[in-house]
Amino acid sequence: MWKGEDYTEHFSMEAYMRDFYSVENILHTESPKGKMRRFAMKTFHEIFEKISDNGNHGNRLFSFGTGPGVLEVISASRYFPYITCSEFIADGRKEIVKWLEKDPNAFDWSPFIQHISKMEGNESEWEEREKQLRDAITAVIPCNSLDPTNMTEPNYLKPFDTLLTAGILDCTCPDIATYRAQLKLLIGKYLKPGGHFIQLGPIEADSWIVNGKTFHSLYMTKEDVYSAWENAGLKVEQFYFVNLGEEDKFSDVTYKATFIGKGIKL
Ligand SMILES: C[S@@+](CC[C@H](N)C(=O)[O-])C[C@H]1O[C@@H](n2cnc3c(N)ncnc32)[C@H](O)[C@@H]1O
User: Fold this and answer.
1) Looking at residue 75, what is its pLDDT?
2) What start-end ranges are recorded for coiled-coil regions in this protein (predicted)?
3) Does the ipTM exceed 0.95?
């Protein structure tokens, strides 16, 4: 079973994009991956609307482990004009840059931008939202959750207003003790006091498969997550869950539910 440090050699970005960002699966069928991604899009949309409610949410957001796509920062870009994306694997960073530079071979995010614009009540103006997203992503840099302190980009020096991480720590942390320690480091270093933290992850996971290769996924209960958040100096504000029933278990991913949590750094 492959873990965080093995991704460079064994993880296929191409296969991940094909299988986990499929427009057909996510937007047009009732597939389990679609259920999870649609839950994420809707929940991020709701969370960012709430965060913007009082108008003093700041303007810098750090996406820790963005992956090869921009899906998780579409909603955020409506409110945060300075988004730093990060990804462990160089191929993943290249995919984001290709999209930013309008490379004809870049992945087409427009169906997802349209879908989210519709939630925002502005479907007809999705092209402006696409531009807003491109303008907001001001940096795409390397990250490593196994060594989160070793980030020397000037962008990192100042803690961010919001920190978002989706499906990273569960892939890279071998056990709960490491998850607790890494979360504490991330929150301590990259989030300002009073800033928002958002995490997406699996509950009671075991493993996941990309391109026929099995990768580790950390087994965490809801209680493990709440306790790690408190230990990291976060006040838990909201937790959202989507359960995967027997009928919609992924064939290539094992877990019971997906959570998205939002907290504030005390
Ligand atoms: C399940 S994907 C999540 C990607 C993205 N956030 C998304 O939701 O599509 C797991 C990601 O973990 C990244 N990863 C693997 N090892 C890592 C490490 N040591 N530090 C940070 N990220 C790592 C992989 O490159 C991959 O992009």
Assistant:
1) 98
2) none
3) yes
